[in-house]
From TrEMBL, chains A, B, C, D, E, F, G:
Organism annotation: Canna indica
Record SUPFAM superfamilies: GroES-like
Family (UniProt): Belongs to the GroES chaperonin family.
Function noted in UniProt: Seems to function only as a co-chaperone, along with cpn60, and in certain cases is essential for the discharge of biologically active proteins from cpn60.
Chaperone keyword on record: yes
Full protein name: Protein groES
SMART domains: Cpn10
Oligomer status and interactors: Forms stable complexes with CPN60 in the presence of ATP.
GO MF annotation: an example: protein-folding chaperone binding
Entries under InterPro entries matching the protein: Chaperonin_GroES, Chaperonin_GroES_sf, GroES-like_sf
UniProt KW keywords: Chaperone
Length: 97, 97, 97, 97, 97, 97, 97
């Protein structure tokens, strides 16, 4: 059974959203329209610890859809699923419909 | 439908202003007169978080016309539109008529 | 007899968990399924000392199962056992069943 | 019509003083006597924002004649005029008659 | 006669423990079992001076057995004895029986 | 007419002292005895601005004879005179008879 | 006549102790026994200025015998004597009989 990961400090565990490469009807989508590098937040750490020993809360929360930087992040494999860990301040923004 | 991006920390979402390459009457403009690298602010983050856990407000606001640095910024594609993300302190100034 | 190591500052002494390379029944496991770089916390330091001379407590505690970065850590040999020392903030997260 | 630029943070907009290369009477001046790299301050930002969220006032003000560093500064073209943006703390000093 | 060295700031004077290369009975020990890089603390400085002008006490004390990093430290020769100076925060931990 | 330069922040305007290469009586001095790199302080800035917005006073004052570092400093030409600008904390010490 | 140098900030003026290369009786000493790089403190600066504008006192005082790092320090020649300037925190320790 896959273990559950609780990130430390200001780390954020993200499951990348793989954009569909073809429509439901089976039509292939051009690469251009699949470019957005986004993910769903699975778990967040308690925040970075400031030198005054308080925690700086993380800017995103579990369930958020986030825009990720093109590079960076640490790949983590839990069971059959692949996740990525990002530092809170490397995440570019949150995405909303 | 295009998603809406809410920038994190002190990031600023900018839509670049493409300078007209010819006048309304169709006369081509020399490259020299189109040099200013400017954009319109679409959305701003809540500000960088200081170590005392307060937010440092972003220097620009939605709707501002801003002067951008020649290099830098992260390209973001939302639907058919192309935007750029800048850190608040990389924006050079605001432009006014 | 092996000596006992008490880490200084925010260092964490970890015993790496060697994933089984075959099942109890003797079937070889593919390398892919053994990838997670984890360990058990054996001892933690008192925490980094802030410039205000207070200690910033370490984020993990003795007995925690932790996710380790792919690189880094200092190998330490005590008696016949091999351990690794990590800085508190290099540890990626804690693992739970 | 040229736009007006309001610098952000501790940036200073400067119009460089082009030293005359010949006297009013038309006598060419040797390069040596035209060496001083100076400019007139056109506009200043509100100041860099300290981590305590207060502004650190800029050391020069509009109208000041300033001594500029040999390198650095960002060229900005507004209408037909060419300006340079400097960080407040890159300006070497103010010049007085 | 050898001089006595009082370290400054957060420096720690250490005499390295040379592991025996053979047993008391004269049997040669394999290199592998002699790997631990440890030393005895001879003297410690008053601590690094914080910007608030207070001293941050050193984490080890005279007489401690310490685990040393593989690289670093400054060799010091006092009389016939060879010592090493380390910064307090380069020492990995204390060793106990 | 030469302009007067008022340095900004913690900058110090120095006129280098050119050591005599021969005695009053005309005897050439060996290069070795002319080595000291010193200068006279012509003007000092108000001091570097701390993040708490106060000024940190400059360590030297107008008229001081100072020992200069071998490298560094920015050459400034005002009228026919050549000066050098140094940062306050690059000046090594003051010289007294 | 040689000038007197008053160091600035946390600089320390040191006269290096040249170890005798032979005994009083004229016997040459092996290089090994002359290795200690020490000096006598001639003058100290008032201390580095903290951002809160207070001075951090220098750790050594005039007359102290100090252990110097192998590299670093700025050579200064005053009259016929050769001295070295060190930053307070580059000095390794004080030596006592």
């Amino acid at each position: 059974m896959a273990k559950r990961l609780v990130p430390l400090l200001n780390r954020v565990l993200v499951e990348k959203i793989v954009p569909p490469s073809k429509t439901n009807a089976g039509i292939l989508l051009p690469e251009k329209s699949t470019k957005l590098n986004s993910g769903k937040v699975i778990a967040v750490g308690p925040g970075a610890r400031a030198r005054d020993r308080n925690l700086i809360p993380v800017s995103v929360k579990e369930g958020d859809t986030v825009l990720l930087p093109e590079y960076g992040g640490t790949e983590v494999k839990l069971g059959d699923n692949e996740y990525h860990l990002y530092r809170d301040d490397d995440i570019l923004g949150t995405l909303h419909d």
